[in-house]
């Protein structure tokens, strides 16, 4: 069996994994980065989710390297796309003019920019990317991981990685069970966390819905797909709290839980440069077409785009029938989630009520060429909730909730390694919960949340950090995942440089100060200015 060695093994090539690898490489270290799917970038690319970001993202509140990613995406559009002069002149160019984010864009552009950021390190030989590979085993000596075994997704060819530091940046914390690292899943009990929104008893299999996203446009002609095999099941499916069938325009408002009706207007005659994408003011989900639009045709020269392209990550594609972590039928649930998304698309084409009184939009096309999925959908399911390490520090609801903290702001951690901001945004769950949506103060990322209580050379570098089921809803978004991964990579490099351990860095005041100084030097913000949450 082939063995590969490096200073660090970063398993999982989502946003946290890419950021971790870049931090290690900037520090002069050698890295093996692995990824299960065809594109690096995780939720931004293979999962096809436009970036969910806070209201101040254009001014502060993200790391310098994340800002470089965002600006690289805008530069790619200016260099390669036929933008109108008005769009090209916009400093804060939003190619899709979606309401969910100030930077809605096609996933493939983010792939190109991520690859460009990594390219010089591949050329120098200090970075090796193994793709598409998934972790299938590990060897452990006491509290240390000595190797990780990977299998090729398509051929099952296996490779062994050996490295002084192993970073778990997988979407579901795959290394945690493989290495025997203590972790938690689902909803913790209130007696454990003290969280106002937690249940009386732990619910380890109660997790947020996964969603299989897809891109669509609307042009002349009939592009109706074959009727999905399970369409009748999903057409009749009605969650008890939904207020209607899942396949409808009616559903709960995430913040108020009142039943609301959303609209759907393909290719509205709106001005893309007048869109205000600020979730503090407006969540932007009233018109589903513009909510997560990733290409606004009026941002491009006449004829370049026959239609807008919008990304379907809407309430009706949330899969509630079962979790996909630590269950024997995970593959069945993932396949059913894909079937739900195909059924939603077929419903849109054939039965969705139109404003003119008719039904169906046969002109809708599935744009698998945009998402890279062989079946027309995203390559990977959007997984909101991972296994989470039993960490030295676990962030709880009362650390950041506006209802609890009031005007005091979020808890400030001595060992902050970054900052983030998002409402606690929990989608309906496999345990039958409705939305849980809680206003938040701008928060910090504690170093202790990246470090398992026991393991000495395994670090969390994604959505598997020390949050709870509830606070994961705020820490799971794109810039926070990137920051967590970047801090984990920087920590591994720092420990190698100083011949120390992650636990010691957190415990020793001088080491912690030196590490935080290194983060600040690299453009990682550790504290928020005086701003109020939402």
From TrEMBL:
One of its GO terms (biological process) is NAD+ biosynthetic process. One of its GO terms (molecular function) is L-aspartate oxidase activity. InterPro entries: FAD/NAD-bd_sf, NadB. This is FAD-dependent oxidoreductase. It comes from Acrocarpospora pleiomorpha.
């Amino acid at each position: 069996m082939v063995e590969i060695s490096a200073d660090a093994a970063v398993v999982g090539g989502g946003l946290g994994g890419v950021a971790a690898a870049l931090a290690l490489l900037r520090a002069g270290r050698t890295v093996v980065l692995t990824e299960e799917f065809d594109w690096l970038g995780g939720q931004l690319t293979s999962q096809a989710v436009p970036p969910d970001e806070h209201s101040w993202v254009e001014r502060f509140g993200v790391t310098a390297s994340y800002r470089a990613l965002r600006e690289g995406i805008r530069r790619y559009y200016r260099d390669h796309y036929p933008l109108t002069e008005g769009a090209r002149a916009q400093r804060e160019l939003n190619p899709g003019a979606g309401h969910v984010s100030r930077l809605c864009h096609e996933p493939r552009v983010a792939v190109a920019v991520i690859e460009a950021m990594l390219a010089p390190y591949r050329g120098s030989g200090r970075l090796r990317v193994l793709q598409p590979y998934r972790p299938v085993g590990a060897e452990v000596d006491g509290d240390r991981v000595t190797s990780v075994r990977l299998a090729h997704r398509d051929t099952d060819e296996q490779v062994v990685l050996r490295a002084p530091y192993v970073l778990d940046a997988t979407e579901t914390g795959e290394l945690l069970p493989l290495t025997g690292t203590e972790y938690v899943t689902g909803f913790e009990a209130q007696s454990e966390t003290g969280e106002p929104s937690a249940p009386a008893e732990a619910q380890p299999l109660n997790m947020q819905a996964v969603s299989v996203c897809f891109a669509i446009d609307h042009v002349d002609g009939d592009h109706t797909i074959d009727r999905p095999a399970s369409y009748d099941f999903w057409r009749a499916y009605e969650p008890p709290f939904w207020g209607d069938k899942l396949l409808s325009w009616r559903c709960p408002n995430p913040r108020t839980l009142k039943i609301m009706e959303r609209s759907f207007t393909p290719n509205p005659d709106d001005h893309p440069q007048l869109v205000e994408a600020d979730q503090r003011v407006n969540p932007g989900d009233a018109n589903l077409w513009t909510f997560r639009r990733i290409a606004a045709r009026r941002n491009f020269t006449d004829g370049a785009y026959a239609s807008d392209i919008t990304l379907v990550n809407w309430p009706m594609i949330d899969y509630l029938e079962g979790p996909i972590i630590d269950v024997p039928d995970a593959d069945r649930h993932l396949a059913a989630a894909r079937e739900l998304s195909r059924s939603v698309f077929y419903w849109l084409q054939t039965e969705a009520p139109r404003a003119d009184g008719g039904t169906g939009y046969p002109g809708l096309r599935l744009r698998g060429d945009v998402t890279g999925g062989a079946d027309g959908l995203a390559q990977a399911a959007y997984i909101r909730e991972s296994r989470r390490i039993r960490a030295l520090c676990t962030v709880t609801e009362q650390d950041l909730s506006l209802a609890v903290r009031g005007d005091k702001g979020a808890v400030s951690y001595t060992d902050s390694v970054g900052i983030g901001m998002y409402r606690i945004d929990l989608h309906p769950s496999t345990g039958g919960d409705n939305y849980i949506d809680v206003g938040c103060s701008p928060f910090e990322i504690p170093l202790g949340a990246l470090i398992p209580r026991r393991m000495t050379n395994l670090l969390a570098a994604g959505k598997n950090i020390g949050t709870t089921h509830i606070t994961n809803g705020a820490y799971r978004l794109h810039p926070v995942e990137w920051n967590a991964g970047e801090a984990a990579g920087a920590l591994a490099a720092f420990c190698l440089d100083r011949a120390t351990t992650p636990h010691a860095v957190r415990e020793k005041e001088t080491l912690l100060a030196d590490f935080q100084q290194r983060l600040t030097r690299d453009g990682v913000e550790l504290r928020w200015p005086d701003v109020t949450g939402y």
